[in-house]
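Batch job 17 of 40 flagged for manual review because the log was empty.
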Amino acid sequence: MKTLEELTRVQYGDYKGDVAVDTQSGTDFLKFCKEKDVDVDNEFPIGFSFGESTTSGIGRKDEVHFTVYTIDKNVAGSNYDEIEKYIKSNSGSIKLKKYYLSIKYSELTKFITRYKVTCFNSMRDIIREVDIIGDDNM
């Protein structure tokens, strides 16, 4: 078993942090998954990751490695509430299936309307609380 944090690794991990993503609606990601042949009839997509690894410059290939994480509807339930209840009843320990895709960067706009990545160097491990000086307009 892995933690969600362990699923978000790069080779060296010089900077680590958090990501937040907004979608237009709850169905956009589901529609995207269906277009990419993810078995949404039997599996419920509950997460995704994307990234690129290159020494020739991020974005030059205009493709991103994309992973969809799904949970089996026959085991966990067929809707959000049932699946949430299932996860809680298993103390947060679940089995997920991975779908590996290679997509164009522009395809992310099919379901992502906003995203923000915040990361810090290894000093993040000793920082407990911050007071930001200045105005953050984002």
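Reviewer: the log was empty due to a logging misconfiguration, but the result itself is present. The chain has a mean pLDDT of 88. Unflagging and moving on to job 18.
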